[in-house]
Amino acid sequence: MMNGEGKTERMWKRHGMMAVVLLCAAGCATTPRGSMTPTPSQFTFLGKDPQFRKVISQVYPAVPVQGYMVGAQICRPEGARIEFNRNSRALDLVKTPEERRRFKAGVYPFQVLKYKKPELSGAMVFYNIDKTLDLATLGMTEDKWILNEELVTKARAGVLAKYTMEFENRPVLTYWLGNRTDLYAGGPPTVEVDFSGTPGITSMKINGRKVDGLSKTLNVYLITRDPQTGTPRLNPVEYAIELNCGGKQYKGVLGKLLDNEFTAFVRIPCTIPRALLDAADKGTVARFVIMSEGDISGGREAVAEILVSSK
Predict the structure, then answer these.
(1) Pick from 216, 215, 171, 222: which is nearest to 196 by CA?
(2) How far is the C-alpha of 7 from the C-alpha of 26, rounded, in Å?
(3) Mean pLDDT across 53-70
(4) What distance in Å separates the CA atoms of residue 114 and residue 81, rounded to the nearest whole number?
(5) Cβ neighbours for 149, distance < 8 A, ≥ 6 positions apart
(6) Which of 32-36, 125-129, 191-195 is the least confident region?
(7) Beta bridge pairs of residue 70
(8) For the CA atoms of 100, 161, 23, 191, what is the dihedral angle to 10 degrees?
(9) DSSP strand E in 168-301: where?
(10) Global pTM?
(11) CA-CA distances (angstroms) from residue 33 to 70, 86, 111, 138, 264?
(12) Which of 22-31, 68-77, 230-239 bottoms out in mean pLDDT, i.e. has the lowest?
């Protein structure tokens, strides 16, 4: 087993690269009043997506630019607080339910908070912004509300909600929304796993450490360097798990974690079925594969695998 916690983030920051995405240097330029600042941190799944591969230089420019901007009005979910990139220029939809902001091309991770607690996570990507769009404001009409009620309902149900908005027949804004409570804001890929739905579960450990709330954020990769060339390597991480369910103890392995748009925004529901726990009680090594759900570009995928047996 490899423990991917802690060291992965340090290694990632040191090397600043990912095999599937061309990483660019980015910085913070002075922006007009009321404007938002995109994150320079890479969302790695964007580099794998054919649609976004074409605009990756727009959303992650090698040199920060002012460029054109577009206005956007966000008025849903009603009564929520929306924090961009961990409390940067938050929107309070209680006090200012129809506040408008200005966005340049880039990636804007955000969280939806209800009663000060993170409820949903997502990201907005603005692209293809030109001088005409610079005069426009998106999300002004009910049929084009950004973070509309239908998508919020889907996200709360544990599926990935995704929407692309067009302007003059070209895509200009894509956003995702899911029920992940720990914001992934780019950089080393992480997943949030949730075992709370497993029948009878009262406690658990991952790599020997107790997991509070039966939910934890884990690294997808352990990054090491090739001893000969010094080139960073991405090593998928497996985690040892221990469960206490209905007074019985189980052990197993959590692995094959996937870095994609689903895991970036949705908690992985590690709800092991009762039938598999019963099989483990009889000496079987039970295998549970978790599939992604919702509006996924490449269709449903296996995002994690759990092997479990009686302890």
Answers:
(1) 215
(2) 24
(3) 85
(4) 7
(5) 76, 77
(6) 32-36
(7) 103
(8) 120
(9) 170-178, 190-194, 201-206, 209-210, 215-219, 221-225, 232-236, 239-245, 248-255, 268-269, 286-291
(10) 0.83
(11) 13, 19, 22, 18, 30
(12) 22-31
- Residue 259 near residue 220 (C-beta atoms within 8 A): yes
In one-letter notation, the amino acid at residue 130 is D
User: How many angstroms separate the Cα of 179 from the Cα of each of 245, 264, 277, 294?
Assistant: 25, 10, 26, 12
Cβ neighbours of 151 (radius 10 Å)? 24
**What secondary structure letter does DSSP report for 246?**
T
Residue 24's pLDDT is 30
- Ranking 114-118, 191-195, 220-224, 285-289 by mean pLDDT, the lowest is 114-118
Q: Specify burial of residue 25 (Cβ count, 10 A radius: 0-12, 13-18, 19+).
A: exposed
Q: What is the DSSP string of 41-84?
A: S--GGGGG-HHHHTTHHHHS-SS-----EEEEEB--STT-EEEE
Backbone phi and psi for residue 195, each to the nearest 5 degrees, phi listed first: -100, 5
How far is it, in rounded angstroms, from Cα 195 to Cα 203? 9
Give the pairing type, strands 106-114 and 100-104: unpaired
Show the tokens assigned to 255: 């692995």
Query: From CA 283, how far away is CA 223, in angstroms rounded?
Result: 35
Helices (H) and strands (E) in the chain, counts: 6, 20
Cis before residue 40, ω within 30 degrees of 0? Answer: no
The pair of structure tokens assigned to 60 is: 């992650």
